[in-house]
Amino acid sequence: MSTAPPGGVRGRELVFVGLLFVLLTLVLAAPLSLAPATKALPLSADTRLFLWTISWDVHALLHQPLSIFDANIFFPEPRTLAYSEHLIGSAVLGAPALLATGNPVLALNVIVLLSCVLSGLGAYYLARRLGVGAVAALAAGVVFAFGPARFVRLAQVHVAVVQWIPFALAFMHLYARHRHRRDLVAVAAFFTVQSLSSGHGGLFLTLALGALILYDWVFGQLPGPGRMLRDLGVVGLLLLAVNLVFLVPYLRAQHDVGLHRTIGAVYDWVPNAVSFLASPAHVQEWLLSLFPGVQAKVADAKAYLFPGWITLLLAALAFGRRGGDGDEVTAAIPPAAPGAPWWLKVLDGAVVLVALAALAIHVEGGIRWTVGGATITARNANRAFVVLGVLVVLRLGVARLRPFAFAPPLVRMREALRRFLETRMGLDAGFYVVLAVLSVWLTLGPEWILYKVLYRILPGFDLIRVPSRLGILTLLALGVLAAVGLDRLVRGLKAPRGVWVGAAAVVLLVGELAAFPLGARDYGIDIPAIDRELATRPRPFAAAGFPVPDPTDATRSARLHSYYMLHSMAHWQPLVNGYSGIVPPRHQRLFMILTAFPDLASLRELEELGVGYAVLHRDFYSEEDWDRVGARAAEFPDRLHLEAETDDGRLYSLPAARPLE
After folding, report:
1. Beta strand 641-646 with 649-653: parallel, antiparallel or unpaired?
2. What is the mean pLDDT of the chain?
3. How many angstroms separate the CA atoms of 249 and 56, rounded?
4. Is residue 272 part of a domain?
5. How many C-beta atoms lie closer than 10 Å to residue 206's C-beta?
6. Pick from 293, 440, 471, 591: most CB atoms within 10 A?
7. Which domain holds residue 388?
8. Whether the model pTM is above 0.90
């Protein structure tokens, strides 16, 4: 297999492949793909959150784009869209369906189904840009689009829409190879589109791009930072600056309401060992049924991370030594350089040790080491970083013209690795071995150190509460390696046998990953008549939905508040209720008070906030509670006016409420 890129990936080729992935998505995502307007992959409250988010984004982009983060939930808090992922890029993708039909369910399904098509097309394009033949490149697309680590998360739109990652990596490879400015600008464009579509996807791409840039830098594939900045140019910098605009509301929310996840919450979501054998695919379930003991253990898996036996087999083929041009690789391992003086080794060794110690203290949030009879305690890494700074200044001052004392063995290791990779899958494709290792390592969670390191040093990494989601990067890496392995296999066969063998392998791959029919259910959004009645009232106004559950009952709170959010789509006016990634402290207290509505304390709170209407939903009350609430409301004739009553609820106005500003 040649590592030289193909002469180009033609538009007609991409159109054909795109149509092929449309067909595969229709089959493998059935019945969701066959009835996208009426079915959904339910996640209860989260599904309603996604439907509301997509709908709010489209509404705000049309009516108040400059204040899109000031969503209508958790009134009167500002920037409440930043309490979870904004999904604005995905909303733009689903906007045509929403505006044409007014059906948020269809819009959400269009987004997730397109993610399958574009994920397959993107991974195919990436493999082609790495020099893989057209038939074999389909394997990369199939694995990334329909592999369990991504496909089973279709209901989690903020995790599933990672389709722009392979495109960004493909153009990064092109830039490293040809140094064309347009390729680097394309990387910036795809990075921004991915980040706007999914915060998780943006972080995944940050990790993958960061690793690829470091990998290419180590192997001398990239120019210096100055040249890259010049090539990025004003257009590229402006594209990246867009991300900062959307980051600011999250930073302010983090400061104002404590939008932050502690690392302790991650441990409950770390995948167990059997997760790496778990898959909803019919073939894997059948194979496990042949081993009842193993099947019983796999039933306790915390995630679906098994990529498929054919995927692993094809990826393994990528590690075989290449014939032909692979034998001509002559990456020489440099001879040992003259040793550095002892004092330079001591100084450089001290720099390395202190740097590692500072990082360890920072990651652990302080340390207490006992060595022999001595105890070393450090509450933070400040002193260690000061010592490190002094050592670095000393190193630059006394020996800045001397190379790092331990550079020669590192160079020899690098060249040995280069030769290993170039004689197998090629240097560019070799990056996906590194990506697979790093992503599996991260998937193992905080106890395996790397996750904890990134949690401490990479801003926003705490967004990834579930380590198994990083298996999406592993899936992409294995998909690329599987394509390389299949390409190796088919190129060793004479035409047209190679084409037929490659096509058969792709068909078998599709068959092994098949897990249809998906668990889609009939799903619709029915706005209650009482909320439609509220929508006819003069605007602006603020409203509250009742009953308000005890906030310590997380399940019922999420259920009811998420329904009220959907109901607010009838008017898009401010709503006291809300369900998101965080509940602001003021609303924790407020919701507890509102559980007793209507009473003096709850009415006083609503009036002071400027809430003009209370909407009572009969379906969420027992018959006894419904009668009791009605009787209590009658005790406050001057503070609660019955505006309307329907079969599904009552609408009260609060005439003493403070006017909205």
Report:
1. antiparallel
2. 91
3. 16
4. no
5. 19
6. 471
7. 342-404
8. yes
